[in-house]
């Protein structure tokens, strides 16, 4: 059911904080230095973004509220104007209770819908959304449908989480709140075996691009993203 922009505003203007306990040192990373990072979202406007497949048109379904990109209505997935090959992405997200979204990377404008081409870092309320019951590879921080997170690291719905995605060639890492949750290689024997058992097996364009846009999924639920920074890797 479509919620009003007012409801979205009420949800996302209330900041909270939490601590993820029991993090294991071998899966934790030091905070990345700011060297080389650039802002992918200025916190004030939708400049640098467009709806997937609608480059040059006014953005629909997303708004800037309290310094965050908020899914505010039907409009479709939001993607960066720029494409990236190898990169490190830092992004904070907050999902509404029962919500579902995702962060796409190396997304192609030529494939519709976006998930036919782009791997998805899952953003989910693990406790309330029914997709969480469909398998561990649907939980927050997973590579959706392929690699489950090594542990649960997401904070409760309505609280901010900090994600980190590292992509260098075929090597990919997913991090959440300082914990490494997934580490895999696109095209490896393990990848190919998982792919053959997944819904992506009949889509040759899936994860085939070595350069593409960063995408934020419109799954019909309230979600907010902020402090989006990226740096290209040599």
UniProtKB/TrEMBL annotation:
<dbReference type="Pfam" id="PF06439">
    <property type="entry name" value="3keto-disac_hyd"/>
</dbReference>
<protein>
    <submittedName>
        <fullName>DUF1080 domain-containing protein</fullName>
    </submittedName>
</protein>
<keyword id="KW-0732">Signal</keyword>
<feature type="domain" description="3-keto-alpha-glucoside-1,2-lyase/3-keto-2-hydroxy-glucal hydratase">
    <location>
        <begin position="36"/>
        <end position="231"/>
    </location>
</feature>
<feature type="signal peptide">
    <location>
        <begin position="1"/>
        <end position="20"/>
    </location>
</feature>
<dbReference type="GO" id="GO:0016787">
    <property type="term" value="F:hydrolase activity"/>
</dbReference>
<dbReference type="InterPro" id="IPR010496">
    <property type="entry name" value="AL/BT2_dom"/>
</dbReference>
């Amino acid at each position: 059911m479509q919620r009003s922009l007012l409801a979205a505003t009420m949800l996302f203007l209330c900041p909270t904080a939490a601590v993820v306990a029991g993090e294991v040192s071998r899966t934790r990373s030091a905070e990345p230095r700011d060297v080389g990072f650039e802002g992918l979202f200025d916190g004030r406007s939708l400049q640098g973004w467009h709806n997937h497949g609608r480059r040059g048109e006014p953005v629909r379904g997303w708004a800037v509220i309290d310094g965050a990109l908020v899914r505010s209505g039907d409009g479709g997935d939001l993607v960066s104007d720029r494409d990236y090959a190898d990169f490190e992405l830092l992004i904070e997200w907050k999902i509404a209770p029962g919500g579902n979204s995702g962060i796409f990377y190396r997304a192609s404008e030529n494939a519709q819908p976006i998930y036919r081409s782009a791997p998805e870092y899952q953003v989910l309320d693990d406790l309330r959304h029914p997709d969480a019951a469909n398998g561990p590879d649907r939980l927050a921080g997973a590579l959706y449908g392929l690699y489950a997170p090594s542990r649960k690291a997401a904070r409760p719905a309505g609280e901010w989480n900090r994600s980190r995605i590292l992509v260098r060639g075929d090597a990919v890492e997913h991090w959440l709140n300082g914990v490494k949750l997934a580490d895999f290689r696109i095209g490896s024997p393990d990848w190919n075996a998982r792919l053959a058992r997944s819904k992506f097996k009949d889509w040759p364009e899936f994860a085939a691009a070595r350069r593409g846009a960063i995408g934020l999924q419109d799954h019909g639920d309230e979600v907010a993203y902020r402090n989006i920074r990226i740096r290209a890797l040599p």
